[in-house]
Amino acid sequence: MRAMLFTGVGRPLQLTEMPIPEPGPGQLLLKVHACGICRTDLHIIDGELTEPKLPLIPGHQIVGSVVAAGPGGGRFQSGARVGVPWLGSTCGTCHYCQSGRENLCDVPRFTGYQIDGGFAEYTVADSRFCFPIPAGYPDLQAAPLLCAGLIGYRSLVMAGEGPRLGIYGFGAAAHLVTQVARFQGREVYAFTRAGDAAGQEFARRMGARWAGSAEQRPPEELDAAIIFAPAGELVPAALRVVRKGGVVVCGGIHMSEIPAFSYDLLWGERSLRSVANLTRQDGEEFLALAPRIPIQTEATAYPLAAANEALEDLRRGAFCGAAVVVPG
Fold first, then answer.
1. Domain of life here (predicted)?
2. Which of 56, 177, 183, 252 is the most exposed place for a label (fewest CB within 10 A)?
């Protein structure tokens, strides 16, 4: 099979011929149809996440069809279309796993980080951590649901039920969670880089009531804000526009250093919290909700050999919505 291989920080992914992997106990062998590109992939490639296995096939928003199953992996029938998320496996025995918080497992393994991912023609995955793909979602549109959608959904739940929601960084996760928030009857206020007229127009098209730069104050005080951009300076910016008792949620796996800020921004029983990974329950809830809305994903397709170009386009903000690698 062909795969895009990461061999170390500072090196582009290499298009490589590799043996098709064999499914082990509890695993599925999948033919990859599409794999979404995530900012986490950039954090791995740039060395900001420091524990990847090497060499590594990145990619953790995988849509594929079942080719074969290892012993005990027959949860899905041959040919079934399934999704593989970031959370690839957990121990099942630690305090967090036993208390319904497997996203905080002490010894997790992550797809496209410690486990080879979906920038390839085939991959293997733990069948217990795969999801059936909702009918009606083509592969290209389904892939972003598996991380951008899931993390966005978990972040929205963490933000509480306030009617006015701010979103900082209007990319893959934001354009999906905006649709969920609007379905719930909330108002969305979108914050982008200064001068990003295309991103602000995209936010309005997705249902945002207002869109402006991160330096601006929205026309209304917000009940909560979610920060998807990996920029620590957005934390005090978001606290400034959230009402007393409001919540600021950091929705990324990595963020630059948060600058010092005065206590008055946090005072008034404002809360600052992070979202880590996801649980399988998150996946089941969100993938059941998506077709009810229905969520429309905006995705730009790249062939497998162009994965480096796709990653650079993500870095530059060259597209709206999500990017997806299509191996076929």
1. Bacteria
2. 183
